[in-house]
């Protein structure tokens, strides 16, 4: 069911410092910050030859990243995103196997403009998993 | 400097359950468990079309994964591994920029039989980063 690893998302407390570090010290191809007010985040994509790193920083007063950074002030790996061909078929298979889908269970439009779902970390080895239909 | 994302490593408390979940529910291509006594881990590689997931489970009495699972009983994303062409040049650049390399600073031979280094999570947004020379 799962296909490519679309991205690894890293929550960062200081976005400018993280950009400078990935572009400078680590010599990676770092994009421009993009505000995503609907998701409460500012995102920066780092293009690696085979996948992407997504830096996440809180935007606004109700960001889902604020609580994460409160618990992990240095930042940390927030989630990993696997691609799927058919997100409704994926959801139905997951629910049939007893896994929990976060929120209402209906896909939302993610930061890339494509349908996404998040799976409960307690059902997946402590990892927050995003599924994105591509 | 950094190239491909070689793998994302996930520490798991129940290796058989994680294998069954990735092979069954998530429908991925899961390899056979490999004991790595020199590293204190049993590893399972999950081959995605563009990169790998590495499941990590403690092996023996002094596993580096035991402490992580004590703190994170459900498991979690343990580290990410970026490929580099020249690990000594990478190390020298990192040290010159003030980043800390774990251990003696000399590369070790990793679970894939190639030279690796680990970087201090506090210097990299709370992420444990492995560099592997490929």
From TrEMBL, chains A, B:
<protein>
    <recommendedName>
        <fullName>methylmalonyl-CoA epimerase</fullName>
        <ecNumber>5.1.99.1</ecNumber>
    </recommendedName>
</protein>
<feature type="domain" description="VOC">
    <location>
        <begin position="4"/>
        <end position="134"/>
    </location>
</feature>
<dbReference type="InterPro" id="IPR037523">
    <property type="entry name" value="VOC_core"/>
</dbReference>
<dbReference type="GO" id="GO:0051213">
    <property type="term" value="F:dioxygenase activity"/>
</dbReference>
<dbReference type="InterPro" id="IPR029068">
    <property type="entry name" value="Glyas_Bleomycin-R_OHBP_Dase"/>
</dbReference>
<keyword id="KW-0170">Cobalt</keyword>
<dbReference type="InterPro" id="IPR051785">
    <property type="entry name" value="MMCE/EMCE_epimerase"/>
</dbReference>
<dbReference type="GO" id="GO:0004493">
    <property type="term" value="F:methylmalonyl-CoA epimerase activity"/>
</dbReference>
<dbReference type="GO" id="GO:0046491">
    <property type="term" value="P:L-methylmalonyl-CoA metabolic process"/>
</dbReference>
<comment type="similarity">
    <text>Belongs to the methylmalonyl-CoA epimerase family.</text>
</comment>
<keyword id="KW-0223">Dioxygenase</keyword>
<dbReference type="InterPro" id="IPR017515">
    <property type="entry name" value="MeMalonyl-CoA_epimerase"/>
</dbReference>
<dbReference type="GO" id="GO:0046872">
    <property type="term" value="F:metal ion binding"/>
</dbReference>
<keyword id="KW-0413">Isomerase</keyword>
<keyword id="KW-0560">Oxidoreductase</keyword>
<keyword id="KW-0479">Metal-binding</keyword>
<dbReference type="Pfam" id="PF13669">
    <property type="entry name" value="Glyoxalase_4"/>
</dbReference>
């Amino acid at each position: 069911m799962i296909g490519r690893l679309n991205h690894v998302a890293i929550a960062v407390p200081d976005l400018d410092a993280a950009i400078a570090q990935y572009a400078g010290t680590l010599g990676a191809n770092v994009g421009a910050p993009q505000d995503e007010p609907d998701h409460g985040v500012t995102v920066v994509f780092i293009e690696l030859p085979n996948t992407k790193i997504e830096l996440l920083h809180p935007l606004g007063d109700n960001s889902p990243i604020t609580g994460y950074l409160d618990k992990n002030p240095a930042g940390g790996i927030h989630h990993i995103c696997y691609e799927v061909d058919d997100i409704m078929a994926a959801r139905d298979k997951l629910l049939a196997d007893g896994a929990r889908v976060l929120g209402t269970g209906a896909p939302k439009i993610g930061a890339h403009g494509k349908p996404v779902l998040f799976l409960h970390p307690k059902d997946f080895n402590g990892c927050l998993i995003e599924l994105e239909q591509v």
